[in-house]
Amino acid sequence: MNPLDFQTTYWDRVASEKIFSHPVDIDTFRRWVRPEEKILDYGCGYGRTCAELAENGYRHVTGVDISRQMITRGVAAHPALDLRHNDAEVLPFPHRSFSACTLLAVLTCIPTNAGQRQVIEEIARVLRPGGVLYLSDYPLQSDARNNARYRQHEADYGQYGVFGLPEGAVVRHHDMPWIHELLSSFELLQEQTMEVPTMNGNKATIFQIIAKKPEREKPTTPKELATL
What we know:
Blueprint: H1 8-13, H2 26-32, E1 38-42, H3 48-55, E2 60-65, H4 68-77, E3 82-85, E4 98-104, H5 113-126, E5 127-137, H6 144-157, E6 162-164, E7 170-172, H7 176-182, E8 187-197, E9 203-212, H8 222-226
Parallel strand pairs: 1-2, 1-4, 2-3, 4-5
Antiparallel strand pairs: 5-9, 6-7, 8-9
């Protein structure tokens, strides 16, 4: 993976101080995911979303994150949660292990197209057919402050919307056609936008998408192809 997509040193350094704010619309989540189903929180940080889901009756939630310090913080605060450190590109789970996956403000931390494709492909691998992806992240913002830093950093990173933060991280805001392309193997069920504070306390627009993995996966093995 590109080093820009794997900023573990930064996340370990700020693990004790960051407060994440992407909301989970529990009513929407309940519409698509039953409490007894297995859920993966990809990029769980210190377990905020896992704890919220558990508080709302979801009993089988697993969180993974590349930052060992984030996981340490989460386990200390929520010892009953299943939070795991995983710094590999491949998730440590078999195919079709989960009925749903939450991906909240994670793509913004993975600036390259290739890195984002890898994440979505790996999530698709571990979701069962018909499994749900709950994706929340940042589109390109319209305010002068953000547009100035998009222009300032475009030459540095070769992608409009990718920029460096003063504290050391490189993040990305997204052109929505790219997000729809990224999710082209999923069925789009619901999409909305809202205003939230960022992890640094600034106001920002986010998008939230509910998407479903197809009920029937494309055949990949000779046996599966022979049944067509």
